[in-house]
Amino acid sequence: MWLDLLAALGGVVLVALSLRDIFLAVIPRASNRTWRASGTLSRVGWPLWKRIAANLNEHGRRDEFLSLFAPFNLFVQIGIWITLLILGFGGIFYALRDHLHPHPNGPGAIYFAGVTLLTIGFGDIVPGNGLTRLVALMTGATGVTIIAVLASFLLTMLAAFNRREEFVVRLSARAGAPPSGIGLLMFCAETKSPQELSAFLREAESWCVSTLDQTLAYPQIALFRSAHDNHSWMSSLGAVLDAAAITVTTVDAPYAQAEARALLGAARHLLSDLANYYMLPHAPGERIDEVQFGLACDRLEGAGYTLHDRHEAFAAFSRIRHFYSGHLEQMARWLASDVTVWLAEPSANELAHPMHVR
């Protein structure tokens, strides 16, 4: 009697916790620090995975190994959800075993829950009264619903990943691989079109907003890595942030000021929310010294940009970069991603044909 009651109660709790975790994982909503089994798996498993990857000497093998974690973690989560549902319904059926024919033992009740949840239905065990039939019907309906929801979830994740990576590839064509903010500005100078910079900054702002919404709704997306060498969505974020900060503080480009400020706001919001979700402490980021800044200014002037006073521009740029560089580097370390390149090598086109922006 007490054993049956305990089995039924434990089964109901397992089913409720599993459905809650699935709901929180697949329904688009802002993520918070509410405890979730799936979120705990990522937070615990990813550091262990990175530790194993650190022992691999070859960079290509290490990056390939790191890229396996996100899909592996996703399918493990799905397996855990289904297993917990089977165990939960198994506990309920064990409490109702006297109304199942033939009467199953513990493993038999779990087996019946599994074939019912997955709608296999061999018919070797059948419910014998109204209550067990109702529970069996609910189990099958739950299984069908969960399979449909998870299929939609996987397709949504894939679409979100593709949208994020499309911009990463487009940026690499303009800012190099790995990308840099200076590289993006140099490309825009080579086009001899002021509208190119403002248009791309506007596109980058849209990408940041989209990435923020997708990553907060589905935090697993952050762990999916680019399939291309020297490409990383985190280094791309750093490159567009640097480009926007330079546009605001250093380059005399009134046609792109509004877009650059909007991009800075959206990108810093993205970094701050992700750092809060992963509970990463804020730490000082890499400081760009005035010599490095001067080298970048030399290249920008050589391309035809009109610059503000360098000393004042450096002070303003350092203040703005201080607000995002710490979170950016913390996130890059957490994701085992490439750090943003500050000053890319000059392109062959830039060396041979310096362009001017008016």
UniProtKB/TrEMBL annotation:
The keyword Iron does not apply. Pfam families: Ion_trans_2. Residues 82-158 form the Potassium channel domain. The chain crosses the membrane at residues 74-96, 108-128, 134-161. This is Potassium channel domain-containing protein. It comes from mine drainage metagenome. The keyword Transmembrane applies. InterPro entries: K_chnl_dom. Keywords: Membrane, Transmembrane, Transmembrane helix.
